[in-house]
Design brief:
- The protein is of the alpha/beta class and 127 residues long.
- It is 44% helix and 28% strand.
- It contains four helices and five strands, in the order βββαβαβαα.
- A five-stranded mixed β-sheet has the order 3-2-1-4-5.
- It is globular and about 45 Å long.
- The mean pLDDT is 92.
Length: 127
């Protein structure tokens, strides 16, 4: 099974593609879709759409995992990231790839065993 994991953003949308085979996970590739701060917001969303469509067409994932959003301070950023996340969901749906959504707490719990782990702990466990 090929799984595409996505961390939504409008400046940086991170992704990893892993293979699950024989009770073992292996990394196929990872990277980021980058958009330029000087571009119009609609153009940035189109870039996310186009690049994600290419990633899906290239790697043909069996499932897509998307992080749910959690923001407690900057609502402007939250709205923009939510729009980028919407683009991600639309591309996945149009490509007919099943979507699974997880909160940051669920992801940290699965990766480190502790839902409140910091980024450094998550990075160490992923390596």
């Amino acid at each position: 099974m090929i799984i595409l994991g996505i961390d939504p953003g409008f400046a940086i949308t991170g992704y990893s593609i892993i293979e699950y085979k024989g009770n073992h996970f292996s990394l196929i590739t990872s990277g980021a879709i980058l958009t330029k701060a000087g571009e119009s917001f609609p153009d940035r969303l189109v870039k996310i759409y186009d690049d994600l469509e290419n990633i899906i067409d290239t790697y043909k994932p069996d499932a897509i995992s998307v992080e749910e959003l959690f923001f407690n301070t900057n609502t402007t950023t939250a709205i923009n990231v939510a729009q980028a996340r919407g683009i991600i969901l639309v591309v996945a749906r149009k490509k007919k790839v099943p979507i699974f959504e997880y909160t940051p707490l669920q992801i940290k719990q699965a990766v480190t065993g502790y839902g409140r782990a910091d980024k450094l702990q998550v990075q160490k466990m992923v390596k």
